[in-house]
Amino acid sequence: MKRLFAALGIALLLASCASNGRPSDRQRFIKAAGKPVANPSDIVKAELAFARLAREEGQWTAFRETAAPDAIMFTPEIVNAQVWLKGKADPPRATEWQAHKIFMSCDGSMGVATGAWQGASGGTGYFTTIWEKQNAEDRRLRGKDVEWKWIFDHGVPLDKPLEEPDFVTTRVASCSTDSISDVGAVEAGEKNKNGTSADGTIFWSAESSADKSRSLVVRLWNGSEWEDIVNDDVQGSTE
After folding, report:
1. pLDDT single digits (tens) 182-197
2. Which of 28, 137, 205, 209 is the most exposed place for a label (fewest CB within 10 A)?
């Protein structure tokens, strides 16, 4: 029953963002001002399309086709996703997954999806996928639709499956950035990567170690301080 409610929640979310085909007053104002608009339903649609592609075309085929050229992932070490995925054969049956929470930067340039996955062999766990809007202004000028690619993907096995939510929840970072504080990023290296949304309201940092442990932190600006929305610290012994 909860899966049904979650599916209905996604449909309602997509419908509410469309507002019966009419943009909201806020969307009309921001568009008129020439500013981008945060639309969490973009990430919902990207996740649904990603999962469908995995089912229909193959798991690693879907990962390759939806990843940005410089996307990274844990294997469990940090690797360039396209290099690692090149030529990788698809398994007979793809892992399935469902987004439970969606976060988005104020300007709509970056989105984060977290949720549950179920492996073909019966394993279960949770995931975090970070999405980035691709060449938005150039595509707009050429009359092309918005394109999203994932830039980071991370999955962790669990002993028990995540509880299914009644609805997919969404949250957008605050646009009040006049007093935004330093997020405390360190210089990226071979085993430490980080990035921010174009407007600086979402920050992420990923790190892996020789013992196969890895960590991921994602922070969202809430208008007064940075708030951790993902804080994973996975020990090597769990791999």
Report:
1. 988 777 777 899 999 9
2. 137
In three-state secondary structure terms, 145 is coil
Which residues, including other chains, have CB under 8 Å from residue 155's CB and lie 6 or more apart? 74, 117, 125, 126, 127
Collect all residues with Cβ–Cβ distance below 8 Å to 164 and sequence separation of at least 6: 2, 3, 6, 98, 100, 116
Range of the domain at 132: 2-238
Residue with token string 């929470």: 101
Tokens read off for 47: 């996740």
CATH code of 91's domain: 3.10.450.50
pLDDT, tens digit (0-9, with 9 covering 90-100), for 101-153: 999 999 999 999 999 999 998 999 999 999 999 876 665 655 667 789 999 99
Tell if the pTM clears 0.70, that is, is over it: yes
SS3 state of residue 118:
strand
Q: Angle between the 41-57 and 59-66 helix axes, to the nearest 10 degrees?
A: 140
2, two tokens: 């909860």
**CA nearest 214: which of 71, 76, 67, 84?**
76
> How many domains does the chain fold into?
1
